[in-house]
Amino acid sequence: MHFPTLFSPLDLGPFTVPNRLIMGSMHTGLEESPKHFGRLAEFFRSRAAGGAALIITGGVSPSDAGRAMPGGAAMLTEADVELHRCIPDAVHQAGGRICLQLLHTGRYGFHPKVISSTNAQAPISPFQPHALSAEEIQAEIASFAEASRLAEMAGYDGVEIMGSEGYFINQFTSPALNDRTDEWGGSADNRQRLAVEIVKAVKAVVSDNFLIIFRISLLDLVPKGTPWSEVASLAKKLEAEGVHLLNSGIGWHESRVPTIASMVPHAAFKDATSRLKSIVGIPVAVTNRINMPDQAEALLAEGLADMATMARPWLADANWGVKAEQGHAEEINTCIGCNQACLDHVFVGKSVTCLVNPYALNEHKLQVVPAAVPKSIAVIGGGVAGMSAAVEAAERGHKVSLYERNETLGGQFLLAAAIPGKEDYAQTLRYFKARLAALGVTVHLGVEVTAQDLKEAGVSTVILATGVRPRVPELPGVERANVVRYDQLLSGEVAPASSVAVIGAGGIGFDVCEFLLHCDAPVTATKDFLQHWGIDCEDDAQGGLVKPQPQHAHRRIVLCQRSTTKPGKSLGKTTGWIHRTALRMGGVEHLVGVEYLRIDDEGLWYRLDGVEQCLAVEQVVLCSGQVSELGLQESLIEAGLGVHVIGGADKAAELDAKRAIRQGVDVVMALSA
Ligand code: NAP
Ligand code: SF4
User: Fold this and answer.
1) Which protein residue's CA is at the shortest distance from atom 39 of ligand 1?
2) Cα–Cα distance for residue pair 119/107, rounded to 1 Å
3) Was domain 10-346 assigned CATH 3.50.50.60?
4) Which listed residue, 272, 402, 551, 554, has the most CB atoms within 10 A of its CB?
């Protein structure tokens, strides 16, 4: 049996789940509009069918003031019950269980009616909250009870009461915010009163078959936050009030410590969960950056937790659980923690999907159906665009050959996986390779294929995914030995020098700086990561924060750009701040608004504010964008082949793995109609 602990049943009290997999709460952007509930139901149904024993919905507010935004999701009336019914129904049809997450955003809400324990404004919201009176607090408690009653009416199997991540309940429990002088603030008992009263009120109105999960903030990761001793006392009170399962919450939205991005080591905060498990008798779930079954199995087998909560991994692969249970873990499409198509989309109001799995939340319009007329298709280029197209075409019954000039598949993702903190990008390559093998795609490595070869092989259609080559700027001295391209550095072809100028402050320029900071001083092991960012999972530090002990290489790094915009402006919304902070911690210097003049023995010459100066560095790394690699296109067209260009070969200016993988799916769908 594969992963025997992970796939053993667990009695949660109200019911028994067949395995230990929880699909954690994620905001999908669909919770807000009932017209999308059918789509949401299909999303959850497919994850239940794919092995998630217990699903938790995206956050739904129990009260008007607790909404995340104007018109944000809320469970307030029996009319809402009718709208929600299709969601638990769909999950139950697939044999799963689903709980509604009750998320009261408190001062994090993005609207003028926000409320909290305090009138102190959140650093991530433009609205000042109203500090609730004791009477108003009672009304909010009652709203949790009513929303739970309605959730049970709608067919949900339980609720998860969101008590972490800096939301409403956490705004009362944490000493970082709650300086009230009434019975709802001050002492730990008073601050914890809201959480306890909410659980009591909910228990009073739901049946014994209804599961109550509480997501407890194990580490606030904000200054003056909750110390472990108070987390422990709250956990014991919640257990005494009848909570069935404690889910781990790590960090607040305003924390300046990464908690879910790709550079966070797998299960980095497991010791906090382990502590929780040691003091309560009810089941606990471990969270954050668990993305493969061997990790989850090891945590559970060690007895560190009873269940494993994963959220984004279920976006990346609907069948995560089934593949793991049936011994096909190598075919799991692994979440790489990039946030580029999930959380980053939430913040710009775009519907959530997944970079590595464009099918996520598009299940209603993307389906794998056999091609009307199977073709003989050649895919040229084995980066993620080409591999995506090859897998998609083979899934739809086409005869597919994949040609890659290098000896290894992967393209730009191979380079990305060399960046410290982006090691998981290699998982995407492992996934595609496993699928190509399982689908019987013929893969030709180290081959410069020609139009003539393809004609002779009987190919009718070519998907050209030949990617990009780095742009080399026209700059005197650019051909010198002290100038290297980013791909030469990241592939190990050239070693980094002890003083380096990086030309180009786009995503790759930032990545190269991280490489220069950490290639010889890694912080990828959990212990190093926790020390680097100043996280305490063992003592009683307030908010779990201690003095950071940053580790980085002792080399001078200067990141240069011609534009005068803020460095890192183009980076992802939810990860850009981490990259900027990491570079600041590592002492990376920025040169903004420069005009490059030449490179010589002395270093990089530039003009800034009309003054010509030399940056005395031993090495200059070019991260100045890319140009499309389209060398084959003309000869293929001349040979009469149908040519479809995707990925970086199509558009180098916005080199983007999300677009590349999606284009691989789209082009094959169009060819299969
Ligand atoms: P890029 O945005 O093309 O950055 C290259 C930078 O080089 C430009 O911003 C430009 O900045 C500079 N440049 C362009 N032409 C130049 C020239 N002739 N001479 C000197 N400098 C020149 O993107 P990239 O860094 O190559 O990354 C490629 C893609 O991958 C981007 O779409 C990026 O979003 C994505 N990516 C994202 C991440 C992430 O979000 N963490 C990481 C890696 C890659 P100035 O004009 O200001 O000098
Ligand atoms: Fe994971 Fe990235 Fe997909 Fe989000 S977009 S689920 S972080 S792989």
Assistant:
1) 507
2) 8
3) no
4) 402
Q: Report whether residue 571 contacts ligand 1, using a CB cutoff of 6 Å.
A: yes
Q: Can you read off the two tokens belonging to residue 302?
A: 């060690």
Tell me which of 344, 508, 575 to substitute to probe ligand 1's pocket, judged by most ligand atoms within 8 Å of the beta carbon. 508
Fold designation for 474-624: FAD/NAD(P)-binding domain (3.50.50)
Helix (H) or strand (E) holding 429: helix 425-439
Q: pLDDT (tens digit, 9 = 90+) per residue, 325-338?
A: 999 999 999 999 99
The structure's pTM equals 0.96
Residue 335: name the closest of 299, 289, 367, 269 by CA: 289
Q: Which of 262, 264, 340, 430 to mutate to test the pocket of ligand 2 (most atoms within 8 A of CB)?
A: 340
Both tokens assigned to 444: 């030709």
Reply yes or no on domain 376-469+627-672 having CATH 1.10.10.10: no
Q: Where are the domains of the chain?
A: 10-346, 376-469+627-672, 474-624
Ligand 2 mean position to 657 CA, how many Å? 11
User: What is the distance between the alpha carbons of residues 145 and 83, in angstroms, rounded to a whole number?
Assistant: 19
In this prediction, residue 653 carries a pLDDT of 78
DSSP β-bridge partners for residue 589: 558
Instruction: Tell me the DSSP string of 67-134.
Output: -SSTT--B--SHHHHHHHTHHHHHHHHTT-EEEEEE---GGG-SSTT-EESS-PPPTT-SSPPEEPPH
pLDDT in tens, 223-262: 999 999 999 999 999 999 999 999 999 999 999 999 999 9
Digit-coded pLDDT (tens) for 400-451? 999 999 999 999 999 999 999 999 999 999 999 999 999 999 999 999 999 9
